[in-house]
Amino acid sequence: MEEQKWDQPMGGFNAASRSQMAEAAAGGEESQRTLYPYVTGTSVIALKYKDGVIMACDTGASYGSTLRYKSVERIKAVGKHSLIGGSGEFSDFQEILRYLDELTLSDHMWDDGNSLGPKEIHSYLTRVMYNRRNKFDPLWNALVLGGVKMGPKGAEKYLGMVNMIGTHFEENHIATGFGNHLAIPILRAEWSEDMTFEEAVKLVEKCLLVLLYRDRSSINKFQVAKITTEGATIYPPYSLKTFWGFSHFENPAQGAVGSW
Amino acid sequence: MAKFSPYENNGGTCVAVAGDGYCVVAADTRLSVGYSILTRDHSKICQLADKCILASSGFQGDIKALQKNLAAKELVYEHNHNKKMSCPAMAQLLSNTLYYKRFFPYYTFNVLGGLDSQGKGCVFTYDAVGSYERTGYSAQGTGAKLITPVLDNKLKSPNPLILPARDAVTPLSESEAVDLVKDVFASATERDIYTGDKLEIVVINSSGIHREYIELRKD
């Protein structure tokens, strides 16, 4: 045991030694902590627009490389003012929804005319994710939290993200997973302040289409949700039109010089 | 299979320079992960007390937890002692807080800047587990090794090796120090991929705290 400790590289613990120590201490029990994700959702995209926040994602959940579930709702309303979208391990997302249920319930039971806004819920989720990470038992998700709440300066829009180790930030547009690489460049170029709902949906669909073409875990069944001062609306799922009529796809062997 | 690591480096650089009667604390506002930029507008600077500013770079989850932790402890101190914490007191508290997590560290690289009880500028520089010293200036983070040699050259602070030990603060004026900080960040931005977007500069002097932002290269 002592030898192992001194052999560890500088810079703190790694999960392997930790679980070995836990095993030794607990008398040989297997680690009960999350080691890897099993059923996962892919990207979630969100952006602020004139009336509030729009969030969208596909309705698929993969089991490794199998597209296991095709009608999964990965965006949910939280309280009166927020939407949460989750990518990553779906069971952990469901667990988070249970935590949020408890949170919103006790908030409601105060019955004091006050209700948790998106900023507060984002802060709560950040603490939850960070504390689970501290225990080496993370909730394997990247969460997007968006909402609108009336404040002293009028309707205050909020959009933020938190990932499985507690990294969090606020922005005008958010994307998780592959969306970070494929959708964010589009959003950075084409997002503007105070877009109308139609413009925002068009922009979101543009991103979803790119993800559909290029992210192999994405499916052609999407849900768009919006949150405004009037409340949350999650629209029924729909598909996007794709285009495959490129000349190269028509006769792929045409220019190929083959020996077989 | 994805292996869980509890750390990631979100990049960024922090600099602090102390002068006679002022202190400049500056940090870029880029938050990165891997080769991606998460956001261009995230502050790394936290005001802990009247004359005490903390700038941290490293893993952002730990930075937030650390800054929250210190702000809470400062409030408790205020309630117990009926005054705000002084910068040297906060310096010791930060060191203790970091060492408390010696065996699962806060992956944070901090510079603490402010005015001491005599009103002179002070800068404290830390490693991730709490070893610290008071200096006249410091840089931490991904761009630190690009910036420190320039500060060594330009600040005209007394050589730390000569005896008797001399006060480490720079003889430069406040505006000269601020200009120098802007320059070093512009240079670091050129070569460090994790530094850029915007620079947040906070200046503390006897008249209070003043904040300004300047644009940096976004590539």
From TrEMBL, chain A:
Major subcellular site = cytoplasm
Q: Give an example GO biological process.
A: proteolysis involved in protein catabolic process
Cellular-component GO terms for this entry: cytoplasm; nucleus; proteasome core complex, beta-subunit complex
* Claim: Metal-binding is one of the keywords in the record: no
The answer to whether UniProt assigns keyword Nucleus to this entry is: yes
Q: Where in the cell is it found?
A: Cytoplasm; Nucleus
Which terms are listed as keywords in the entry?
Cytoplasm, Nucleus, Proteasome
PROSITE patterns assigned = PROTEASOME_BETA_1, PROTEASOME_BETA_2
Q: Main role?
A: Non-catalytic component of the proteasome.
Q: Which family does it belong to?
A: Belongs to the peptidase T1B family.
Assembly information from the UniProt record: The 26S proteasome consists of a 20S proteasome core and two 19S regulatory subunits. The 20S proteasome core is composed of 28 subunits that are arranged in four stacked rings, resulting in a barrel-shaped structure. The two end rings are each formed by seven alpha subunits, and the two central rings are each formed by seven beta subunits. The catalytic chamber with the active sites is on the inside of the barrel.
- Please give the name of this protein: Proteasome subunit beta
- Organism of origin is Eleusine coracana subsp. coracana
Lineage runs: Eukaryota, Viridiplantae, Streptophyta, Embryophyta, Tracheophyta
TrEMBL record, chain B:
InterPro entries, per the entry: Ntn_hydrolases_N, Proteasome_bsu_CS, Proteasome_sua/b, Proteasome_suB-type
- Where in the cell is the protein located? Cytoplasm; Nucleus
Task: Kindly list the GO CC terms recorded for this protein.
Answer: cytoplasm; nucleus; proteasome core complex
Q: Which Pfam families match?
A: Proteasome
Keyword annotations for this protein, in alphabetical order, are: Cytoplasm, Nucleus, Proteasome
One GO biological process this protein is involved in is: proteolysis involved in protein catabolic process
Provide the leader sequence positions: none
Q: What is its main location?
A: cytoplasm
Q: Which CDD domains match?
A: proteasome_beta_type_1 (cd03757)
PROSITE patterns, per database record: PROTEASOME_BETA_1 (PS00854), PROTEASOME_BETA_2 (PS51476)
Q: Which family does it belong to?
A: Belongs to the peptidase T1B family.
What role does this protein play?
Component of the proteasome, a multicatalytic proteinase complex which is characterized by its ability to cleave peptides with Arg, Phe, Tyr, Leu, and Glu adjacent to the leaving group at neutral or slightly basic pH. The proteasome has an ATP-dependent proteolytic activity.
The UniProt subunit note reads as follows: The 26S proteasome consists of a 20S proteasome core and two 19S regulatory subunits. The 20S proteasome core is composed of 28 subunits that are arranged in four stacked rings, resulting in a barrel-shaped structure. The two end rings are each formed by seven alpha subunits, and the two central rings are each formed by seven beta subunits. The catalytic chamber with the active sites is on the inside of the barrel. Component of the proteasome complex.
Q: What is this protein called?
A: Proteasome subunit beta
Natural source organism: Eleusine coracana subsp. coracana
From the broadest rank down, the organism's phylogenetic lineage runs: Eukaryota, Viridiplantae, Streptophyta, Embryophyta, Tracheophyta
- Its gene name is ga21663
